[in-house]
């Protein structure tokens, strides 16, 4: 009986550690996505608003 409780405790602890690791990795991925979006917005905001308004069709 004591061995079953000990094994259950070890299994529960391992599951908790795996869950915490998964959450940490997810948070890192979300932070990377947020920084990529911020960088893309900075690039878009820095573009000339008149860019692309004129089209030279003569060749």
SSE order and pairing:
Blueprint: H1 2-46
Outline of this structure?
The protein is mainly α and 59 residues long. The chain has one helix and no strands. The mean pLDDT is 89.
Structure description:
- By secondary structure, the protein is an all-alpha fold.
- The chain has a domain at 18-43.
- Helices cover 76% and strands 0% of the residues.
- It contains 1 helix and no strands.
- The chain has one helix spanning 2-46.
- It is rod-shaped, with a radius of gyration of 26 Å.
- The model has no long low-confidence stretch (mean pLDDT 89).
Counting DSSP E segments of at least 2 residues, the number of strands comes to 0
What proportion of the residues is helical, as a percent range?
over 70%
Computed structural class: mainly alpha
On the 0 to 100 scale, the average pLDDT is 89
Low-confidence stretches: none
Termini separation: 88 Å
Strand content: under 5%
Q: How many helices? A: 1
The largest sheet, given as strand count, sense and whether it forms a barrel, is: none
Rg is: 26 Å
Series of secondary-structure elements, N-terminal to C-terminal: H
Shape: rod-shaped
Name the features.
single chain, 59 residues, mainly alpha, rod-shaped
